[in-house]
Amino acid sequence: MPVTPNKLCPSANLIVVMGVSxxxxxxxxxxxxxxxxxxxxxxxDFHSTxxxxxxxxxxxxxxxxRAPWVHNICAYLTQCAQKEQSCTLAFSGLRRSHRxxxxxxxxxxxxxxxxGSQALIAERMSRRSDHFMPPSLLNSQFASMETSDNxxxxxxxxxxxxxxxxxxxxxxxxx
Length: 175
What we know:
Elements: E1 13-18, H1 25-36, E2 39-42, H2 49-56, H3 63-82, E3 87-90, H4 96-103, E4 108-115, H5 118-127, H6 138-144, E5 154-158, H7 163-173
Parallel strand pairs: 1-3, 1-4, 2-3, 4-5
C-alpha cells in the first residue's frame, strides 16, 4: 500500500552535510547530490554580503547575525520540498537550534557530521585560497559547534580518510 506524502511522511529527502568550515561539507554535499541526482545547495550562498564581509574580516557571526541566514535557507528548502525535490545541503550546523529548524521542514532529514581534528581541518583551510572564511576563525567554529549527542539523526563521519572513502562512508551511512 503506497504511503501518501504529507508533513509527517514527506516524499523528499534532505541530506545535511554539516561540520566546521574546512571540513569538506561543500565537496561531500556536491558529490552526494551528483551520485543521488539531488539538488545541491550550499548554505554559504544564503549569507548576506554583510555577513560574508564580517567573516572575511576575521569576525565570527553572532547568533543574531545567523538568524536571517537560517531563515532564508529554510524558506528556500520549503520551496524545494513543495516541488518534492530532494536536496543535499552543505551547512555548518553549529547550533542545535539551527539543526532543529531544518528538522521542522517537510523532508525526511538526515545529518552527516563531517568530524575531524582541528589540526587536520586547519591544514586543509591553509591550502584553500578562494573562500571568504579565513583560517583564523577555525577556533570560533569549534567553540560554536554544539554537541549532537542525543540527536539520533546525526551520523558522524570520520574525515581523516581519503575523500573517496569519506564519500563511500556517507553513502553507506544513509538510512
